[in-house]
Amino acid sequence: MTRIKICGVRDRAAIEAAASARADYVGFVFFSKSPRDLSLDEAAGLAGAVPSGIARIGLFVDADDEAIGAAVRAARLDGVQLHGNEGPDRAASVKARFGVEVWKAVPVATHADLAAARRYAGIADRILFDAKTPPGAALPGGMGVRFDWRLLAGFDPGAPWGLAGGLDASTVGEALATTQAPLVDVSSGVEDTLGVKSPAKIRAFCEAVRAR
Ligand SMILES: O=C(O)c1ccccc1NCC(=O)[C@H](O)[C@H](O)COP(=O)(O)O
Asked: GO molecular function, one example (predicted)?
């Protein structure tokens, strides 16, 4: 069954919607430039609202150990998603130090970008293929940008993986048919406005995935 991650949750209604729609993961963003950024206190409060059976993944962009450690403890994170320029050595170091799952986001625009993913095989617990945002973009992810999913057809990164970038309830079926992704990750596609999750869109997204 395709796994689902709802990224960038900021309130209990989004967590409840994700839980009732049987999402597998919720993502907490720890990146001050993001409209989805959470303080440690906010994250700790939200973590308490996540039912067992849903894993909490913290998203970081080139963060240091101090920042990651504080968030892992405050939000009792099950995993860390590295969404910046972290190389394989940094991914390995985060895994060894914090003992949580490590996901590495790999930005994709062309076929050549896929090769980068293999550097994380055997190190990252999951590789997340996300669209490369345009130069000068406000954020390196979470912007509803998609890439050509056909690039992933038949590609084996050598590790568990997932697909992100520009997914929503109306596109995820085609994305899954094209890529056979074992996990899909969505943020802006289940929002009403930037950073504000829609429980109805979360439910519709999960239903579209499960309908496959
Ligand atoms: O969500 C953010 O604000 C964010 C900030 C910095 C790096 C990554 C960020 N989000 C990543 C995601 O939420 C997802 O992994 C992915 O990019 C999908 O986003 P979307 O295209 O909006 O569905």
From this structure: phosphoribosylanthranilate isomerase activity
